[in-house]
């Protein structure tokens, strides 16, 4: 895949970038390794100040950063503004809390003094996706830099200007040159970097094949990885739920980021008794959404990020129909305009045992399933290879307890949509990956948890 800015709303190629050559990559690795030696000695107060400066730059220049995101991957401008603000939030969060998250932890033993201490590991590689091109990177960069590590970013090939802007923000904030560098490289160049002795660990957010490939390369070198992969999150609505609120939230949760979010609600599992009403209300909401130019303030849904994503999504819709699914609305790309536009789509009646029911639909397509009771709802919710998030709606306390304990996922949200929050850990189980980002757990992923015993 070329490293290029291609406007998904028009198909126009704006700018093409040359991938780094081997010797340029070697220089950046040298710089990262050398920087770590000094950077690990900087104080928390210095790092905190730089991270707060980054938050200020993000806030002050959010309009510019949001425009780059919308231009490169098609999210609505208003969503891009919100994303930049969230990046500022995570910078300030770790600037404030990292010193306590990484403070020595005394442990009483028969030593005169014993404790746990958190040392930085070194150079950490981040392989990142295009769908939240700023947020995914800042939620890695903020804890990594606060822990005293240095970062290397291999961003997705369709968001090079986002990747360069992020490295620039971090430098302007005051971090030493080399503390965070963008590598404009293709996916095929990642394994060699993983094998470099200066790179100590890696995190990847993206698809299962990409995660498996990075983890295999890391495994060869006995290096740690964190993987944040795909999801097919269930959105369960039981009879006692507040239906109006559930439908409004279902619409937001499915259409977030033009439908391209790992934690978007993808499978709607509705109790039989309320399913006809849910379907009708959801259809009304979907038909009211405005598709169009993502830069315009009243646009709800912009284009999908690339033509390939549109083709894959449409193929899945066709497979769903061949398997017995019925298209209630949408179901075909918008052919009357350039760009990668796919309309909000609802599909019902997909057989539960069909292979397609297990897949992640990465676009504005809602799969609706009906179930007789909570047992069937939980069984269906768990019947995918994924386990990222789950949203469940009920006003019955017993049902609530069962949903929390029996759903197999990294997060369960009751009467709310799944979202990430710097204060709470984020990550999945099963084929959605392993490890956690955000909160105290996130900053502990890339540190050497050192046991110290002094006699
Ligand atoms: P992708 O193709 O896996 O790309 C993600 C990143 O991995 C890109 O930087 C890509 O580089 C790189 N990559 C691809 N193949 C690779 C390989 N074999 N070795 C090393 N790096 C490789 O993912 P996508 O399809 O763009 O993104 C959508 C997926 O990400 C969905 O499944 C979504 O659910 C998941 N996601 C998960 C989370 C989470 O937190 N769990 C968040 C967002 C997205 P190139 O662009 O150069 O190919």
From TrEMBL:
It comes from the Bacteria. The keyword Oxidoreductase applies. Residues 3-452 form the Aldehyde dehydrogenase domain. Pfam families: Aldedh. It comes from Nodularia harveyana UHCC-0300. Belongs to the aldehyde dehydrogenase family. This is NAD-dependent succinate-semialdehyde dehydrogenase. Keywords: NADP, Oxidoreductase.
